[in-house]
Amino acid sequence: MTVAFVLHRADGTPLSTVFRRESFGENDPFGRHREIAWEGPDLMAAGRIGFVGELDVASFPHIETIVIVEGELTLEAPGAPPLVLGPQAGAVIGCGTTVRLKAASPVLFMFCAAACGDPTKRGLFALRVDADFKPSASLPADVLLGPAPQCRSDNVFTDDGADYCAGTWDSTPYHRIVRPHRVNEFMQLLAGSVRFAAPDGSVLSLGAGDALFVPRGASIGWESSDRVAKFYVVQNVQVSTEQH
Predict the structure, then answer these.
(1) Which strands form 193-197's sheet, in the order they lie side by side?
(2) What is the pLDDT of residues 13-66, one digit of tens each?
(3) Is residue 146 located within the same domain as residue 116?
(4) Is residue 117 very low, low, confident or very high in pLDDT (cuts 50, 70, 90)?
(5) How far apart are CA 156 and CA 91, in angstroms?
(6) CA atoms within 13 Å, Cβ hemisphere of 225
């Protein structure tokens, strides 16, 4: 199994990740623009979208988290002020939401989408860099290769039916063994840097502005030497448990 899929490098370094242009479901509003890097058996996909123009969607057909890396995207939903997203800003579009999406010039954003059943969580949910952080669980001692970190999270969106949770997370430095990842996880680093170790001893280094997707079951380690903050999406995890 591929350990991780790099979706974006802020410094423009070429990616080894292979993207395929494909819709996520039959009624995908971004069907002509979507580039999928990973799609799994849990009805989740991750990748990137380049878009310009306007889309009016009467009922968004799935859950989608987007994080802008270039340009500006405006999201408008009835009864709510417009949500204007620039680089390092993001939002979750709930399944069933009526939304207009507008980009006056080309915009590039990362996505993590999941199929949904009943549209019980409609609306637009902004991801916040200046998050309302609350203490969250640290890691068990048997997986740590050093002191336990202090972790915080701000879960802004959860959908129990899709086992989907999105928000902002940060942590003090820590070093963790290589082990199978417990969830499907998308992450967009906002601050700090991380070295992700693979079972073969190779190391993938990512920094602020970079985006990554790690499938559930992929064996991966974590080492950080400064504070790390990120937007995240996880699937098949209880929101009160640790994310890594």
Answers:
(1) 175-180, 219-223, 193-197, 203-207
(2) 999 999 999 999 989 999 999 999 999 988 999 999 999 999 999 999 999 999
(3) no
(4) confident
(5) 9
(6) 4
- The mean per-residue pLDDT over the stretch 172-201 comes to 97
108 located within any domain: yes
Q: Quick one: tokens of 166? A: 């999105």
Residue 28 structure tokens: 């995908």
Which one-letter DSSP state was computed for residue 125? E
Among residues 88, 103, 127, the one where a domain terminates is 127
Residue with tokens 């989608």: 64
The amino acid at 60? F
Tell me the one-letter amino acid at 215.
Answer: P
Do residues 80 and 56 both lie within one domain? yes
CA–CA dist 84, 100 (Å, integer): 12
Q: d(Cα 110, Cα 86) in Å, to the nearest integer? A: 12
- pLDDT tens figures, 177-188: 999 999 999 999
pTM strictly above 0.85: yes
Cβ contacts of 112 within 8 Å, gap of 6 or more: 44, 45, 46, 64, 65, 166, 186, 213, 233
Count of domains forming the chain: 2
